[in-house]
Amino acid sequence: MEHIELFFKSIFIDNMVFSVFLGMCSYLAVSKKVSTAVGLGAAVIFVLAITVPLNWLLDQYLLQPGALSWLGAEYADYDLSFLSFIMFIATIATMVQLVEIIVEKFSPSLYNSLGIFLPLIAVNCAILGGSLFMQSREIATLGLATTYGVGSGIGWFLAILAIAAIREKIRYSNVPPALRGLGITFIITGLMAIGFMSFGGMLTGGDEEEAPKETKTVTVKTAKENKEVLANNIKGIK
């Protein structure tokens, strides 16, 4: 259940685009056609699914304070956390180069349509944000880190796919001239973000246990006792 909860939470509740608005440059630039949006979204899923668990291993066994204790007791006091940004970006850049080689080899048309935005995945804030969120939220295991990376990538993929489909259809709509292009895209993105906010309570129910109800003791009096109480009340009135 922990994996399922983290997976759906990273897709809908903590969506990279609609929750923290990361990766907006490529989200806006490559979302004019569904075909290019699908290609870039698949590349982002692949990069996040590989880099987040790799950076988790780096963080756990190299960067955290005391992470080098596996080398010996004399290394237990070392703290290499100041190298987090450099190491994370190096891992991301390596994976992006691998993706670029694969896309150029097997789909030259997609490679040409993505243009400069494919290598720019290396400096995409959504990719780096996935690793930094993994570190700040202290994800416990490698499996959870992989789940979080895949879920974050799918969330970004759904966001760019949805806006690309809308932008393809909106070409035939009567949009005011002042809002054509990025203007109406920003408005639609804001409305979609509001819609995704409705998923905020999806995984929060049923966590708190109900407090035990207080039991009330009911005293049952006999008919004779009731008559005696009534007689005493009458005497008191007299």
Brief summary:
The protein has 238 residues and is mainly alpha-helical.
What is the domain total for the residues? 1
Total beta-strand segments? 0
Cα(first) to Cα(last) distance is 73 Å
Number of helices: 9
Major beta sheet summary = none
The overall average pLDDT, rounded, is 83
Order of helices and strands: HHHHHHHHH
Low-confidence stretches: 206-211
Overall geometry comes to flat
List the helices and strands and how they pair.
Layout (H helix, E strand, L loop, with lengths): L1 H12 L10 H6 L4 H30 L20 H23 L1 H7 L10 H12 L5 H29 L11 H16 L25 H15 L1
Helix pairs in contact: 1-7, 3-4, 3-6, 3-7, 4-5, 6-7
What attributes does this structure have?
0% strand, mainly alpha, flat, single chain, 238 residues, 63% helix, 9 helices
What does this structure look like?
It is a single chain. This protein is mainly alpha-helical and 238 residues long. The protein has helices at residues 2-13, 24-29, 34-63, 84-106, 108-114, 125-136, 142-170, 182-197, 223-237. It is flat, with a radius of gyration of 29 Å.
